Amino acid sequence: MSTSTVIHSARLVSGGDTVSDAWVRFDGDTITGRGIGDGWLEQGPADAVESAAGRWLVPGFIDLHCHGAGGASFEHGADGIETALAVHTAHGTTRLVCSLVSAPVERLERQLAAIADAAARDPRVLGAHLEGPFLDDEFRGAHDPAVLRTADPESVDRLLAAARGTLRQVTLAPEHPGALDAIAKFADAGVAVAVGHTGADYDTALAAFEAGASILTHAFNGMRGIHHRAPGPVVAAMHADHVTLEIVNDGVHVHPDVVRLAFRGAPGRVAMITDAMAATGHADGDYVLGSLDVVVQAGVARLRDTGSIAGSTLTLDEALRRAVVDSGIALEEAVDALTVTPAAAIGRAGDLGRLERGYAADAVLLSDDLAVEAVWGAGARLG
C-alpha cells in the first residue's frame, strides 16, 4: 500500500541551490510536492510527518562505482548484494551501480544475471558496471592480468545479453584493438562507456570520447598523469564537455588539492564515487577482490603481491565531508557531485538526483557536520 511522507523545516540542498525552511512531500516512491514554510499543511494529510528542525535535507546519494561492503562483494550473488547495500544505505546511498572486476566472460555473465535479478526486486540497484575485462595490463591496478582481453564483438554481445538491459557502465582501455567498435556498440545499447585502466595518451582518450565514451573511471588513478607536454586522459576528459570524471575522494586515491583541481577543471561534471570493496564498514584484514588477495590496514586496501591500491573503504557521506572540509568545495557543488551529476552520467537526469516534484522520493537528512541522520529511498524510511 502506498504511503505518504512530509519532511518540513529543512535547509534543502538540491540542484545547486539551498532553500531554507523548505518541505517536500512523498507519495509512494515519487516526490509530489515541494515548498517553503507551512505550505505542506495545504497538501492534505500524510501518513508520516517529520521535522528536519533546520538540518540539511539533500537528495539520496548515487554511487556509480562500488564493489561491495560489509565483508561482501557484488560478485557474491543475492546475499552479497543485500549485505553490501545495507552498509551503503546507512551512509546515505539510495541508488547504486554494482561494479564487477575483471573475470572470464562466462563468470561475468552469471554475475550480471544476478545483478539484473537484484535490480528487478530492489530500487536501490541501478544495474551493473563492468570494470573490465577490456583493460590495459600495465595500468590494470587490482585486476587479474590472466583474464584481461580485447573487446571482441562476441564477448560484447554476450555481456550485453546477460545483463538483460541493466548494464549501466563499462570501463575499457580505448587504445586496444576493437575498443572503438566496442564503444559504439555499448553506447548504442544505452551503456555509458568509461575510459579507464588505460595507457592512452591525450589524443587517444579524446578520440574515445568523440566516439561516444562519456565517463573517466576514477580520474587520476589507473591512467597516465598530467604532464605539461603530455596532458593525458584527465585533461582530455576536462576538454570533452560531455564527460563525467569519477573521483574517489577518500584522501588516499586523490590529494584534496587535486580534488579541488578536478572540480574547477570540469565544473558540474565530477561524480564522487566510492570504488568501495568488501572491507567497507567491516574490519581490517585479509580479503579477496575478484581473484586477487587484498590486505586492508587502517582502512586502506592494497594488493598483497604488488601493493597497488585495491579499491577503497569509502562511503559517500565521508566523500561529501572531505570535499567540503578538506578541499573547500561549496556544499551545493559537493552535493551535486553525489546526486545530479551521477544521475546524468547514466541517463537518469529526469528522475533521479533532485528533490523536485516528479523525481524519485530519495532523500538524506544530514546534521550540521554532515553526518547522516535519516535516509529515505523510493519513499520508504530506510534508516
UniProtKB/TrEMBL annotation:
It is an enzyme of class 3 (hydrolase). The active site is at 275 (proton donor/acceptor). Pfam families: Amidohydro_1 (PF01979). Zn(2+) binds at residues 131, 197, 218. Residues 57-371 form the Amidohydrolase-related domain. Transmembrane segments: none annotated. Its cofactor is a divalent metal cation. Substrate binds at residues 142, 221-222, 229, 253, 309-311. Gene3D superfamilies: Metal-dependent hydrolases, Urease, subunit C, domain 1. Binds 1 divalent metal cation per subunit. Its EC number is 3.5.1.25. One of its GO terms (biological process) is N-acetylglucosamine catabolic process. InterPro entries: Amidohydro-rel, GlcNAc_6-P_deAcase, Metal-dep_hydrolase_composite, Metal_Hydrolase. Keywords: Carbohydrate metabolism, Hydrolase, Metal-binding. GO terms for molecular function: metal ion binding; N-acetylglucosamine-6-phosphate deacetylase activity. Belongs to the metallo-dependent hydrolases superfamily. NagA family. This is N-acetylglucosamine-6-phosphate deacetylase. The lineage of its organism: Bacteria, Bacillati, Actinomycetota, Actinomycetes, Micrococcales. The gene is nagA.
